[in-house]
Design goal:
The structure is a single chain. The protein folds into 2 domains: 4-117, 2-Layer Sandwich (D-amino Acid Aminotransferase, Chain A, domain 1), CATH 3.30.470; 124-284, D-amino Acid Aminotransferase, Chain A, domain 2, CATH 3.20.10.10. 29% of the residues lie in helices and 27% in strands. The protein is built from 8 helices and 15 strands. The strands form 2 sheets. Strands 7, 8, 9, 10, 11, 12, 13, 14 and 15 form a 9-stranded mixed β-sheet that branches. Strands 2-1-6-5-3-4 form a 6-stranded antiparallel β-sheet. The protein binds 4'-deoxy-4'-aminopyridoxal-5'-phosphate. The site of 4'-deoxy-4'-aminopyridoxal-5'-phosphate (PMP) has 14 residues, from helix 6 and strand 13. The site of 4'-deoxy-4'-aminopyridoxal-5'-phosphate has 14 residues, from helix 6 and strand 13.
Length: 286
């Protein structure tokens, strides 16, 4: 189905939504983006996503030519124009058209693109049975090189890890940081449950500040589950009672095997199942 795409203030048919081959978003991955979920025609945690987009942009010295409030309105307008009740919204801000050199100051106008489309989900069976994942050799970007908090258009670090995961026959892959500690997966944050405590690596371990991660931490605290953001090793993961991933697309999904080690009972655990239920109640209002 053809979509209406927001391009610098206009809603244009997707066939006409084009950017220049001189755009530094294409030439260098110079830009930032967000992936947002729509439930029941509403963009979930929109203010949080817009805030992260602006923090990412600020970190790469990219000035978005809209205020955050205008960006919120633009996302809502794009969603409404595409009559989607359940969907996925991609917001992209590129550095814009420049020369073939790196200099971002030679770029004219940042391009603001908003796409609202249907979402491809993991099959329900994955949620019932849990995922098998592996740790890959590609380490997560070092924060001193490219901070993983910046959701930039350069996702090659994650794509290289994804390729390794696919070669190993899995749909998600776990990445460590330069210190050998657990960071995150290619497109999801990771949690474990040990003795009733929910544990997840701190942002300082080098990971994206996931909006779903924050939501799940809040839901767990509301449920009376202690939550600790602390460094985790693979040993901690292998010996956890439960493990799950969080992300805008995946929501909350159990992991039952990591590097051939069975996690807990080998089935999605009670804390994971409870958090998925709470998350679905929050997003679907049931
Ligand atoms: N880590 C990475 C590398 C991601 O790209 C994403 C988003 N797909 C996440 C974690 C999860 O973040 P969020 O919950 O905000 O979607």
């Amino acid at each position: 189905m053809s979509r209406l795409v927001y391009l610098n203030g206009d809603l244009v048919p997707q066939e006409e939504a084009k950017v220049s081959v001189f755009d530094h978003g294409l030439l260098y991955g110079d830009g930032v983006f967000e992936g947002i979920r729509a439930y029941g025609r509403r963009a979930f945690k929109l203010a949080e996503h817009v805030s992260r987009l602006y923090r990412s942009a600020h970190a790469i010295k990219l000035e978005i030519p809209l205020t955050p409030a205008q960006m919120v309105a633009a996302v809502e307008r794009t969603l409404a124009a595409n009559t989607l009740s359940e969907g996925y919204i991609r917001v992209v801000v590129t550095r814009g058209v420049g020369t073939l050199g790196l200099d971002p100051d030679k770029c004219s106008h940042p391009q603001v693109i908003i796409i609202a489309d249907s979402i491809v989900l993991y099959p329900e069976q994955f949620y019932r049975q849990g995922l098998v994942i592996v740790t890959v050799r590609t380490i997560r970007n070092h924060p001193a090189a490219l901070d993983p908090r910046i959701k930039s258009l350069n996702y090659l670090n994650n794509i290289l890890a994804k390729i390794e995961g696919k070669n190993a026959g899995v749909v998600e892959a776990l990445m460590l940081n330069a210190g050998g500690l657990v960071a995150e997966c290619t497109g999801d944050n990771i949690f474990i449950v040990t003795g009733g405590v929910l544990r997840t690596p701190p942002i300082g371990a080098g990971l994206l500040e996931g909006i779903t991660r924050d939501t799940v931490i809040d839901l767990a605290r509301e449920a009376g589950t202690p939550v600790r953001e602390e460094n985790l090793t693979l040993y901690d993961v292998y010996n956890a009672d439960e493990c799950f991933l969080t992300g805008t697309a995946a929501e909350v999904i159990a992991v039952v095997t990591v590097d051939g080690r069975t996690i807990g009972t080998g089935e999605p655990g009670p804390v994971t199942k409870d958090l998925l239920e709470r998350f679905r109640a929050l997003t679907r209002g049931s």
